[in-house]
Specification:
two-stranded antiparallel sheet, 7 strands, hydrolase activity, EC 3.6.4.13
Length: about 100
């Protein structure tokens, strides 16, 4: 279901899909994907509303996607042996993400 959330970063109300809920002492933080901006953000539970009927049917401007069969890699440096090897990683590092964005542009 699509909701409307207030993005502090963009300073406006945006359509979003809720992906996760994190409970905290002062309330809940919702992990959201903004469907018109292709961004992820966290919003407080009081900054979310149900989207009105006709607006929910407007197509998204952004789509979530993943690269098929592409695994993150990282550079492992061994200072003792003075070697560097590329190996598997759990997450993409910031340099790889920036390089990929430049390739897309």
């Amino acid at each position: 279901q699509v909701y409307v959330v207030f993005s502090e970063e963009l300073q406006c109300w945006c359509r979003a899909l809720v992906e996760s809920v994190h409970r905290q002492a002062d309330g809940c933080q919702l992990g959201c994907f903004l469907v018109d901006y292709a961004r992820y953000c966290y919003v407080a539970s009081e900054n979310i509303q149900v989207l009105a009927g006709p607006f929910a049917k407007i197509p998204y401007r952004a789509k979530q996607c993943r690269l098929h069969c592409t695994k993150p890699l990282t550079l492992y440096i061994d200072y003792c042996e003075n070697t560097a090897k590329i190996g598997p990683a759990k997450r993409w590092d910031a340099a790889a993400i920036e390089h990929f964005r430049k390739l897309l542009e």
